[in-house]
TrEMBL record:
Catalytic reactions on record: N(6)-[(R)-lipoyl]-L-lysyl-[protein] + 2-oxoglutarate + H(+) = N(6)-[(R)-S(8)-succinyldihydrolipoyl]-L-lysyl-[protein] + CO2
Organism from which the protein derives: Leucobacter rhizosphaerae
Coiled-coil ranges (or none): none
Name of the protein described by the UniProt record: dihydrolipoyllysine-residue succinyltransferase
Pfam family of the protein (one): Transketolase_C
Keyword Cell cycle: no
Cofactor: thiamine diphosphate
Length: 666
């Protein structure tokens, strides 16, 4: 067996002047005073939600952030107040945030677990364990791409080491030599579980497996933490990631109100006896700092924090009318101009490849990352040849969907324009948090402070016996999440124009391709054309019935419409193109003209996009209708494998034609 060791880093003793150490002491007192008031106010019922105090851990936060620049970045976790304060965030805004006031750091939209200020490099605390680690990798990629010397510090607890997110993020950071310090605050407990009961290997051993340097430090000694971070951050800026493990204590429970019955009384008492502030006080006295000076610093900081809390509590609540603000960032007016496709027929696949090329050429901030997208050109060869033109901006990743999506989220927050690929739509399940709780929500939870312009490309499509785990149409799942835009083009021109628009959009966009269309040809787009997001197109005018569809099924509907025209049935086909937000006005306008509606999609019918369209038309267009609404989709079951069953399961042209005939016969 080969024995692997982490690369060795030598930590020089931090020789801090008395003034510098006094500054560190001040920062620790600030956190202690803040958390003490928060604990008291939460117990009194004046702070809603959940609170996780960092009392006892002040030295780790201050030491980790003490010598970071303003432009350096951090990601934090649910116990993040101290990290934010140590990075320079104003206590007044933080108190206001916890009270839920309009003047809160993020306008009362994040609360205790979601404080952020990207302008200060605070990319956000996070209520999902380990979620900040892949986001830190994305921010690290941005720093690397820009070459600006920034470093990212990603705080996490010992419990997060059991999450796959930790391993995916550290693995990717090591492969790409990203400037990230993964900073573990090991307080001995993952919620209620003792660390020794949750890990068969030490963090140092795990670091060795990833060939990442490891530094262990006494988290109660701020001088030692500052020294370790000087070494770690210095290495990360030029040599890649470092793991720092600070052994610390957690005075309070996992959350405020936790009675800690799972901790032995002797162990709890021993933890309370370790006071990092007292340790620093003794160090200051040993350096000759007068006790009155130390006490003055302490009392001044405590008074300042108390005054901030009182002022914050008196602030106004947010205006209820603002409840929907920041869900999506406004799309620039007039930025999108659609051009008619005029070129010779082009494969759908080639149009997507051209869109990626043109987007990367137009925007030096744009990067494209995913599994096999560079050297292999993607599993369906969509990106074949592009890496030759953009060798530093088309990046192959490991098979790590969470890390891939984290690169998108963190990269967008740190200034990149990321395009990331998930090989199959079915695979979003293994990394859904980064879409559901990160990409979709961070702009809202930060009151618009977090920039979240990223594009996620993926593909789906049944009909090739790919089976139940490679054939799912999951667009309704994604369209149900506020904050996401979902695009599903049917033609080459729309595939090009919508992808270009997606990569210029300030919001997270899911771009879903149908692999059964990759070889289909249709008129090529005009170079540089942009298709407007949220605008449907009338693919075929008609007068008797409206058929609404998207993606591959649009083409099936068009063929059916041509056949039914021979029977004297005039069918208007609407191609949604954008599933979320869908174009209500175009659909309702068409139904007003035709008085009948059929909705067709490849996904299962139950709880699908068609159900949302039908409900809207039934409410807002009821008086237009002369017949019941028809829906055509797959059976409510997993996709079968064998061709005969798969074809029976999928909707086809006969199903579409039958639905149209039924509705026009009434």
């Amino acid at each position: 067996m080969v024995h692997i060791e982490s690369p060795a880093l030598v930590v020089a003793e931090a020789d801090l002047s008395s003034d510098t150490l006094l500054d560190a002491f001040r920062g620790m007192v600030r956190i202690r005073a803040f958390e003490t008031i928060v604990s008291r106010e939460y117990a009194a019922g004046r702070i809603p939600g959940f609170v996780h105090a960092s009392l006892g851990q002040e030295a780790t936060a201050v030491g980790a952030c003490f010598e970071l620049d303003r432009t350096d970045m951090i990601t934090s976790n649910h116990r993040g107040h101290g990290h934010c304060l140590a990075k320079g965030l104003d206590p007044l805004g933080m108190f206001a945030e916890l009270y839920g006031r309009a003047g809160g750091t993020v306008g009362g939209r994040g609360g205790s677990m979601h404080i952020a200020d990207p302008e200060l490099g605070i990319l956000g605390a996070n209520g999902i364990v380990a979620a900040g680690l892949p986001i830190a990798a994305g921010a690290g990629l941005a720093a690397q791409q820009f070459g600006d010397g920034r470093v990212v510090v990603s705080f996490f607890g010992d419990g997060a080491v059991a999450q796959g997110l930790f391993h995916e993020a550290v693995n990717l950071a090591s492969l790409w030599s990203l400037p990230v310090v993964f900073f573990c605050e090991n307080n001995g407990y993952a919620e209620f579980t003792a660390a020794e009961d949750g890990h068969p290997a030490t963090l140092e051993q795990r670091a060795a497996g990833y060939r990442v340097p490891y530094l262990g430090v006494d988290g109660g000694d701020v001088t030692a933490v500052i020294g370790a971070m000087r070494t770690a951050a210095g290495h990360a800026r030029i040599g890649g990631p470092v793991i720092v493990e600070a052994r610390t204590v957690r005075w309070h429970g996992h959350y405020e109100g936790d009675q800690q019955k799972y901790r032995a009384p002797d162990h709890l008492r021993a933890g309370l006896e370790v006071d990092c502030i007292e340790i620093t006080r003794q160090q200051l006295l040993a350096q000759g700092v007068d006790g009155d000076t130390i006490s003055t610093v302490e009392s001044d900081e405590q008074q300042r924090i108390a005054a901030a809390a009182e002022q914050a509590f008196a602030m106004e609540d947010p205006d209820p009318a603002s409840v929907g603000d920041y869900v999506l960032q406004a799309r620039p007016p007039g930025a999108v101009v659609e051009a008619e496709p005029t070129g010779e027929p082009m494969k759908y696949l080639a149009a997507i490849r051209l869109a990626i090329h043109d987007a990367l050429e137009a925007d030096p901030r744009a990067v494209f990352a995913g599994i096999d997208v560079a050297a292999g050109g993607g599993v369906f060869a969509v990106s074949r040849g592009l890496a030759e033109s953009f060798p530093d901006r088309i990046l192959d990743t490991p098979i790590s969907e969470s890390a891939i999506l984290g690169v998108g989220v963190g990269g967008a927050m740190a200034g990149l324009n990321p395009l990331v690929e998930i090989m199959y739509l079915d695979f979003i399940g293994v990394a859904f948090d980064q879409i559901l709780n990160q990409a979709a929500k961070l702009h809202f939870m930060t009151a618009g402070r977090a920039q979240m312009g990223l594009t996620i490309r993926t593909q789906f499509g049944a009909g090739r016996s790919a089976g139940s785990q490679h054939s799912q149409s999951l667009e309704a799942l994604l369209a149900h999440i506020p904050g996401l835009t979902v695009l599903m083009p049917a033609t080459s021109a729309d595939a090009y124009g919508l992808l270009r628009s997606a990569m210029q959009d300030p919001n997270p966009v899911i771009f879903i391709e149908n692999r059964m269309l990759y070889g289909r040809r249709s008129p090529a787009p005009e170079s540089g054309a942009l298709v407007p997001i949220g605008v449907a197109r009338v693919a075929r005018p008609g007068s008797q019935v409206t058929v609404v569809s998207y993606s591959r099924m649009v083409l099936e509907c068009l063929e059916v419409a041509e056949r039914l025209a021979e029977e004297g049935i005039s069918v208007e086909v609407i191609d949604l193109r954008t599933v979320a937000p869908w174009d209500r006005d175009t659909v309702l306008g068409s139904v007003e003209r035709t008085s009948r509606l059929v909705i067709v999609h490849e996904a299962v019918t139950d709880f699908g996009v068609g159900a949302e369209i039908a409900a809207t038309v039934a409410k807002d267009g009821f008086w237009f209708l002369d017949a019941p609404i028809e829906r055509v989709g797959a059976r409510f079951q997993p996709a079968p494998y064998t061709p005969v069953l798969e074809q029976e399961w999928l909707p086809d042209q006969e199903d579409i034609a039958a639905a149209i005939r039924r509705t026009v016969s009434i």
